[in-house]
Every structure is written in structure tokens, then in C-alpha cells.
Q: What sequence folds into this?
């Protein structure tokens, strides 16, 4: 693991990441790798190996700010994905970017079938070749599907994407998915607290259209253990910022809609009684309500900044699912929004300081002819800051 | 805002803020948990003994002030609510002394305290004493104005960590005074081995004479006030009317009650912001609900759960390692309005419990499981199991599934709430959940499956796939089917159409005795011969049990044997009615 870690750091140094981020990154290696191909979620864990400090390394500096880009539903390998990647590279260079969050559907249409599947290259490595940043990835329904419909009934397939994280043969060191669901800390907020902690949910087994016959992925064997782990991990987190990422929306004005009533027009075709996301909604609320500052999802191929809702507390809800495909809204009024954009490729850029978050939406022309800032706003940190931090 | 009102109101009655936070009490003028012999608001604040309270009793020469009996309820390991009401014309702020002893002779007194009967709380008195031992039967009596109350008997719960082999609970509901004699209460009163009595609501009915009664019985048992109850005074008078019933008084005197309201404590088919039996002519529903809730807290031996939420009654109890009991409010704290079609019943935005209660319930199930409790009991009002004219496979993806529901006031009308609860039990792999239900005036034993009409989810022959069980207790007096014949016919029709339904009796009134051991949770149904006249006759009707880990009901032929050597019943009332002076 230390080998990987060093490689990882070197890799980042060559790239554009800043040193404080690296030294504070803690969990980089993403844990022990044991059971990385086990069906049962690898126990979640992000393995925060905050172990010994390398000799000669300076003490971690307190993080002033972190910037990152959020993409989703990107893994098409088509021109659109390349165009978004080019725009991301430009924005990252101008505005700064420490890492990327990938909100699932990493590899269309039906994931990968082995750790050396060429689609890792076609849908990830080649498109993002010029972005030398760690990509923290989340599984989507198409990553766990065995048909192009993305029915999500083949969860086992997602394990190859975890294995790729640990592969020594992989093309670059960008791909970060230490487990099907995991946490990851970034930066240092002083007082031994991380600046940011990311919680990544594996939503497909909780909501797939079609029932997975693999009993490793039932609610009893997978969904609820994941929920219990996540709830405790979030509750125990001392991180200053807490952000959650999942593929299936908690709220969305797109055709997939709100958890609890997902895919209202399509469900008659589905076999999984959990396809409406009733239990998924409770999962998200029990784990993240009043704790998370930001919630990122994909699944609907649009860009949405949804206002906080009572059941989730102060968290701002962002759908970023337009980094490879586009779609129109189903009901633009379903949830009140700060900003929303349909039928356009794009991504979200976020900069967090101790007290504020700056969120920008970029739209991208499919033919690579350019990108533009569609919306930008800076708000106070949603979850109140504990006074001890000051 | 409400909280501020509450504090102002309470301060006006003389309670200090310190006391408020200590006793978690409310407008019902409870005494603090520890004996506080200084009457709050009494500037002289001297004296230090119960004797000095006796010395300063107001002069009184009227009749026995204990007209409405005594009661206990909401037992905890070291606490139990003790309740009485004082009827003394012209007096207010009346000190009431209570003594709690290990014996019926009051030789071994473990607690003495004082409460005050005030007009603000309709002269009801609640005291929440701290008692020395869990799982122990205590005797108590009140004293005021030179009179003693009858002796009551109550019991603390076993400590949560304690291992317990055997618990017995009576489960009751739907006691409509002018519809019959409270023979069921009388029979339960004499069961000395009960740990507590659960009352699942419809403890009173709101109707005026002739609206919902048996005319022959009502002639003998007229309700007061003689009209539908709407105002605070009305609700108080209705409780007072019921509490003059000797059978009900006797049942309260012998057992601690754990109560929740159903709709009729407010008005028929109540929900959060309205009710079937409420119209504009009867004023603002919110006001009526507040009046009903206030009278409930005054008159029922219930402990206020949250000081700043006067409507919250959902709460939990722990009976050692053997059982956790979660009592729900499916009626007014979170219920959306009833609908009338299956499609509407599936609206994912509609709720039966409301989000906070549902979160609480899931947390309690987690807590009960992680503390190692064997049985997880849920006491609540309306039937969870579907009741349809032909149960069909019921995937939530097809909004037509499930068959034609018969009663949208039950969980059938709140499909997502039911799926959320059963889905949680399924996801947790939680064994040994038992739901206890009232409301429907009849006896039912059912498996709880998330999709009972779907052979791949639930096997109606073996019960495999069932997640939990539901036992429905019959009414104390309220009727279901008018004759035994009609009841049998209906049962014959319903059982084959509802594969999870193992038994239903729609005719008899009665109650359940729930017998809980580490091996089983068993419901014995006892049915009364009649409620049209006072009667001592009851029969054992049926028993169904679920065994540890089975999560499905199984019929048994005999009732469970009572506990050996139960604690003595409190001695008969006549022995203790002399005046104290």
C-alpha cells in the first residue's frame, strides 16, 4: 500500500494538485484492499490511513480552500465526453481544481466485465488524459447492468470498477474507487479535523429497475449494512465540510425524478419493488439529514441546483449528470431550484473555503467549440459551523 | 411560540421553570418526581413534612372527594404515574398526599409525596414518584381533605438489562360506555398476574345520545354531557362520566395502563388537520383537537413525552431483556387525510405516522434490536395487514396491485407508510416484531408480509415470507357484526381472499391476554358472553402464537397458564373508605 501511496503522490505532483492537499489527503490509498472483489460492499470503508508521517515531510498546513469539479453520467467515450473533458481542463487551470467527483454511469452502457476491460480506456482514461487529477468515482446503474437499458440487475459487475482502483496495470492513477461505498477525507481544518469528508453511496442495489438475483445485493445483505455503516461514519465524522455523492437522485426535475417516486412513468416495466426509491430516500435522510452540506447525484442528464428541503435539512442538492449525455426535464417545477439547465452538456465546479461555498455551472458545446459559465453563486456554508473551529 | 405560551401558562399556575425542566410536566400540574412538600407558589415555604400538609388541609365537610377512582400508568423501571381526581365543591389548589408501599397494609412505605388538584387541570392530580425497585408490585393510596382513596396496585417494569422469563399483558380497545357494560374491564381487573394493561384507543367516544349506542344499554348508562363533545369542558365531562363506571375504576385500580388515543378521543376518523365527524359548525378543528388532547393528558395516567410537544404520545417502554414496547400515534400527529381509492392510497407524499415519528420508530427498532430485546412489540391503532376483496400480487410498480381495499382509514390507505415500516423490518432482518392493533371491534390473527398475494414473496400455507405478525384485539363494548351468523359469513368470505389472514371473529367483544416468554409471544383471545348486561361470563376463544424467529402465527388450542403466585390484588374498596380524621 505504501508503494501505491508514493506513486499516487508522485502522480499528483506531476499534475496540478497542491502539496497541502496531498499531505492531508490521508485516505488516498483507500484502505486495505481486502475483499476488494467481494460482493458485499467491502465493508464500505475508505481506510483513512493517517499513519506515520514520512520523514522530512513538513507538517500539514491548514487548508484554506479546496476546489473540485463534479461530473456525472459521463462514460460514453463519445465526442461529448471529450468536449466536457477539455472544458474541465481549462476551468481547472484557470480556477484551480484539486480533484474530480464522478457521480456514476462511469462506463456506458453496461459497465465493464473485467479489470482489464478496454472500456476503462475508451470511457475514462483517454477522455480525461489531460486532467491529471484524482477522480473519486461512484457506481451508477449502467456500471451495474448487463444490458444497454441500464436495468442495474448485475451489481457484481460494479466490483470490477473497485478492482481497477487496486490494479497495478492500470493506465493512470486517476481512478479512485476504494470500495463500492466509501468515505474519503481531504485537507486539514486544524484541531485534527479534516477540511472535507466525502461520502460515496452505492445507490444502484438500492433502486435498480430490475431485481438482482444475486443475494449479496439484497437490502438485508447489502442495502441496510451500507446504511448502518454510512449513518455511523457520517455521524462520527469530524470533518468541517461534509459532502455526499450518489448516483440516483434524491431530488431531481428530470425524468428519473425524486427518491420515493422515481421513474413515475416507467415503473410499470420494472420488477424491483424498490425501484421507486422509497427505502433509498429514507437511507439518504437518515444518513445525511442535517449533517451534509452538499449532496451530489447524477442519473438525470441535466444540471440542477435544487434548494434545500425540510427532510434533508440545510444541504444543497445538486444534480450533475450531463458530462456525457443530455436530456430534457420532466417537470421543471417539481422541485424549486437555484439554477437548472436542460439539454446541454456540462459540469459543476465548486470551491469551498472555511465559511463559504462558490458553485459554478458550466455548459459545454458538444462539438468542442467552447464552454461558458452558466451560473455562479457564493453562499455561506449550509451546516452551521461549530464555534470550536474558530 | 407554543412553548412560550406553555411557560407563561405554567408560571401562572405557580410552577417554577426549574420544576418544569425537572419533571417534564405540563399544564396538567403534575407533581415533581421527587417529593416536594412545599406547595409551589406558597410564599411561606416553611415546613418539611407530610404532616404539615395534613395540618394545613383546607376545611372540608363534603362527601368522599374520590369520585373518579384512582389509576396508574406508563410504568418505567423506577417510576409509574399515579393519578386521581378530587371532587370538592368550592375548593381549589387542594393538596393531595400519596403514599406508595410494598404491602397492602402500608407498613413498608417507600414513597410519600404531594400533588395539587387545581381547576386548571380539572382537579386531576398526577404524581410520578421515584420508586426503589424495578419489576416490583407496589400499592398506593391518596389522601386529601380527611379522606383516603381506595388502595391501588401498580407495577414497575423490569430493568432494561434484566433477564425476564415471563410477561403477561392485557390488550384492550374501543370501550364505548353507552354501547355496553364494561364486563371486559371487570374480567381483566381480576387477572392478578398481569404486568400492565395496554389500551389501544377509543377509550371514550365523542357522540351524543342516540348517535352511536345501544338504546337499551344507554337508558341505563347515559353519557354526560348529553350531546356530542366539542369543547374542553365537554371532553372533561365525558371522561368524568366514563370514570364513574365501577368496572373501569376497578381495572385501573389493579393495573398500570399504557394508553394511546385513537380517533374517538378526538372525533371519528380523525387525522392531523380534520376528521370525518367534525364540521364547521363545531368550530375550529385545531381548537377541538387541543381541547381533546388537553383533557386526555388530564384524565389519563400517561406521562408527557416531550415538554414542548403537547400532542406527542408516541413513546417506548422496556420490559427487561424480554420485550420492548413502542406505542404509536397513527391518528393525529402525522396522519394525512384519508382517501378513497387505491391509487390515492399509494401517493408517496402521504404519511400515516409523519416523518419524525417514523424516524423515531425506526430508531427504536434499532435500539431494541441492539440492546438484545427478544420481542419488539408495536402497540397502535389501525390494522397494518391489508384487508381486501381478493389479495393480488402487489408490486408498488403497478398502482393497481393489491386488490380492492375495504378500509382506507387503516394502513391500507397509506401504502408507502406500510411499505416503509415492513421494508425496514425486512432490510434489518429483524425477527420477532409483533404488532398489536385495536380500532376495528373484532379479533384477528395475521401474518405481515410485504406482498401477501404474491406466491413468490409469501407462502399462504406455511407462512414463509412473513416478516412479523399482527394480533387485533376486540372491543370492550363497541360492535362489529350485528349477529354471530353474519360474522361467520363474513369470516368465511374474508379468510380465503386474504391469504395472510388466519382467523377473524367479527362478533364478540372481549380482550387479548398476551403471554410473552423467550420462546413465544402468544395471544389468547377471551370473548364475553354479552355486554348488554353486567355479566361474569367469558370464554377462551382462540390462541395464536409466534415462536422465536418464526415471524408467523400458529394456532394453539389452549390458553397459557397464568403466572404462579401473582402479587396480591389490591384489597376491595369497602375496607378503606373511612375518613382519615
A:
Amino acid at each position: 500500500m505504501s508503494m501505491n501511496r508514493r506513486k499516487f503522490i508522485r502522480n499528483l505532483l506531476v499534475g496540478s494538485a497542491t502539496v497541502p492537499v496531498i499531505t492531508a489527503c490521508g485516505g488516498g490509498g483507500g484502505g486495505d484492499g481486502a475483499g476488494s472483489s467481494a460482493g458485499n460492499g467491502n465493508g464500505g470503508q475508505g481506510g483513512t490511513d493517517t499513519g506515520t508521517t514520512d520523514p522530512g515531510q513538513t507538517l500539514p498546513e491548514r487548508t484554506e480552500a479546496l476546489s473540485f469539479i463534479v461530473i456525472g453520467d459521463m462514460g460514453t467515450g463519445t465526442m461529448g465526453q471529450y468536449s466536457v473533458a477539455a472544458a474541465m481542463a481549462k476551468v481547472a487551470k484557470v480556477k484551480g481544481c484539486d480533484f474530480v467527483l464522478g457521480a456514476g454511469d462511469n462506463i456506458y452502457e453496461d459497465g465493464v466485465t473485467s479489470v482489464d476491460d478496454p472500456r476503462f480506456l475508451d470511457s475514462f482514461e483517454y477522455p480525461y488524459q489531460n486532467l491529471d487529477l484524482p477522480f473519486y468515482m461512484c457506481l451508477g446503474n449502467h456500471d451495474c447492468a448487463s444490458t444497454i437499458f441500464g436495468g442495474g440487475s448485475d451489481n457484481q459487475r460494479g466490483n470490477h470498477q473497485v478492482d481497477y482502483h487496486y490494479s497495478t496495470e492500470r493506465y493512470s492513477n486517476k481512478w479512485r474507487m476504494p470500495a463500492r461505498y466509501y468515505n474519503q477525507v481531504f485537507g486539514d481544518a486544524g484541531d485534527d479535523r479534516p477540511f472535507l469528508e466525502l461520502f460515496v453511496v452505492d445507490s444502484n442495489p438500492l433502486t435498480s429497475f430490475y431485481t438482482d438475483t444475486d443475494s449479496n445485493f439484497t437490502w438485508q445483505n447489502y442495502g441496510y449494512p451500507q446504511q448502518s455503516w454510512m449513518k455511523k461514519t457520517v455521524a462520527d465524522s469530524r470533518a468541517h465540510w461534509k459532502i455526499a455523492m450518489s448516483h440516483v437522485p434524491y431530488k431531481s426535475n428530470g425524468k428519473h425524478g425524486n427518491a420515493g417516486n422515481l421513474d413515475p412513468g416507467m415503473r410499470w416495466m420494472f420488477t424491483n419493488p424498490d425501484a421507486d426509491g422509497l427505502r433509498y430516500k429514507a437511507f439518504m435522510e437518515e444518513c445525511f439529514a442535517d449533517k451534509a452540506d452538499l449532496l451530489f447525484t447524477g442519473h438525470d442528464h441535466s444540471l440542477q441546483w435544487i434548494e434545500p428541503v425540510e427532510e434533508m435539512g440545510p444541504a444543497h442538492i445538486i444534480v450533475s449528470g450531463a458530462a456525457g449525455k443530455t436530456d430534457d426535464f420532466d417537470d421543471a417545477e417539481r422541485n424549486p431550484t437555484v439554477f437548472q439547465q436542460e439539454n446541454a452538456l456540462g459540469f459543476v465546479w465548486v470551491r469551498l473555503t472555511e465559511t463559504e461555498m462558490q458553485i459554478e455551472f458550466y455548459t459545454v458545446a458538444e462539438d468542442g467549440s467552447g464552454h461558458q459559465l452558466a451560473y455562479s453563486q457564493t453562499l455561506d456554508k449550509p451546516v452551521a459551523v461549530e464555534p470550536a473551529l474558530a | 411560540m407554543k412553548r412560550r405560551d406553555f411557560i407563561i401558562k405554567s408560571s401562572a399556575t405557580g410552577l417554577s421553570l426549574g420544576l418544569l425542566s425537572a419533571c417534564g410536566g405540563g399544564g396538567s400540574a403534575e407533581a415533581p418526581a421527587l417529593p416536594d412538600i412545599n406547595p409551589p407558589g406558597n410564599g411561606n415555604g416553611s415546613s418539611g413534612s407530610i404532616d404539615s400538609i395534613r395540618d394545613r388541609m383546607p376545611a372540608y365537610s363534603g362527601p368522599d372527594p374520590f369520585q373518579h377512582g384512582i389509576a396508574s400508568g406508563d410504568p418505567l423501571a423506577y417510576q409509574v404515574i399515579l393519578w386521581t381526581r378530587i371532587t370538592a365543591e368550592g375548593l381549589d389548589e387542594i393538596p393531595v398526599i400519596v403514599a406508595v408501599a410494598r404491602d397492602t397494609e402500608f407498613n413498608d412505605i417507600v414513597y410519600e409525596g404531594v400533588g395539587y388538584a387545581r381547576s386548571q387541570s380539572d382537579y386531576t392530580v398526577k404524581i410520578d414518584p421515584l420508586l426503589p425497585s424495578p419489576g416490583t408490585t407496589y400499592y398506593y393510596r391518596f389522601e386529601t381533605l380527611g379522606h383516603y382513596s381506595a388502595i391501588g396496585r401498580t407495577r414497575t417494569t423490569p430493568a432494561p438489562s434484566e433477564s425476564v422469563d415471563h410477561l403477561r399483558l392485557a390488550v384492550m380497545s374501543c370501550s364505548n360506555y353507552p354501547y355496553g357494560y364494561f364486563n371486559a374491564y371487570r374480567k381483566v381487573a381480576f387477572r392478578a398476574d398481569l404486568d400492565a394493561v395496554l389500551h389501544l384507543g377509543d377509550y371514550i367516544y365523542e357522540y351524543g345520545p342516540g348517535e352511536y349506542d345501544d338504546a337499551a344499554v344507554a337508558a341505563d348508562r347515559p353519557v354526560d354531557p348529553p350531546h356530542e363533545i366539542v369543547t374542553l369542558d365537554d371532553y372533561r365531562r365525558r371522561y368524568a362520566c366514563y370514570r364513574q363506571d365501577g368496572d373501569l375504576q376497578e381495572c385501573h385500580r389493579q393495573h398500570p395502563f399504557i394508553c394511546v388515543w385513537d380517533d374517538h378521543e378526538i372525533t371519528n376518523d380523525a387525522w392531523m388537520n380534520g376528521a370525518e365527524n367534525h364540521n364547521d359548525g363545531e368550530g375550529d378543528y385545531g381548537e377541538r383537537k387541543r381541547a381533546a388532547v388537553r383533557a386526555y393528558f388530564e384524565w389519563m395516567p400517561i406521562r408527557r413525552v416531550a415538554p414542548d410537544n403537547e400532542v406527542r404520545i408516541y413513546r417506548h417502554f422496556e420490559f427487561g431483556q424480554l420485550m420492548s414496547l413502542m406505542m404509536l400515534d397513527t391518528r393525529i400527529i402525522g396522519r394525512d387525510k384519508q382517501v378513497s381509492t387505491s391509487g390515492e392510497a399509494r401517493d408517496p407524499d402521504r404519511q400515516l405516522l409523519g416523518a419524525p415519528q417514523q424516524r423515531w420508530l425506526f430508531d427504536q427498532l434499532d435500539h431494541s434490536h441492539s440492546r438484545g430485546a427478544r420481542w419488539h412489540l408495536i402497540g397502535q391503532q389501525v390494522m397494518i395487514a391489508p384487508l381486501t376483496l381478493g389479495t393480488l400480487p402487489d408490486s408498488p410498480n403497478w398502482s393497481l396491485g393489491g386488490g380492492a381495499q375495504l378500509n382506507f382509514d387503516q394502513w391500507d390507505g397509506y401504502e408507502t407508510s406500510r411499505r416503509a415500516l415492513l421494508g425496514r423490518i425486512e432490510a434489518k432482518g429483524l425477527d420477532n416484531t409483533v404488532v398489536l392493533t385495536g380500532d376495528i371491534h373484532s379479533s384477528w390473527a395475521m401474518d405481515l408480509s410485504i406482498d401477501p398475494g404474491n406466491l413468490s414473496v409469501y407462502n399462504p400455507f406455511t407462512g414463509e415470507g412473513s416478516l412479523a405478525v399482527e394480533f387485533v384485539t376486540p372491543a370492550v363494548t363497541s360492535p362489529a357484526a350485528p349477529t354471530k351468523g353474519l360474522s361467520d359469513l363474513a369470516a368465511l368470505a374474508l379468510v380465503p381472499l386474504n391469504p395472510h389472514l388466519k382467523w377473524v371473529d367479527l362478533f364478540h367483544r372481549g380482550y387479548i391476554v398476551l403471554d410473552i416468554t423467550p420462546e413465544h409471544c402468544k395471544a389468547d383471545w377471551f370473548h364475553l358472553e354479552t355486554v348488554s348486561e353486567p355479566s361474569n361470563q367469558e370464554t377462551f376463544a382462540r390462541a395464536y402464537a409466534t415462536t422465536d424467529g418464526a415471524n408467523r402465527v400458529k394456532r394453539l388450542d389452549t390458553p397459557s397458564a397464568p403466572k404462579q403466585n401473582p402479587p396480591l390484588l389490591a384489597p376491595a374498596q369497602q375496607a378503606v373508605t373511612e375518613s382519615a380524621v
Observations:
- Chain A has one domain: 2-29+61-389.
- Confidence is low (pLDDT under 50) at residues 5-43, 45-56 of chain A.
- Chain A touches chain B through 23 residues (CB under 8 Å).
- Chain A has eight helices and 14 strands.
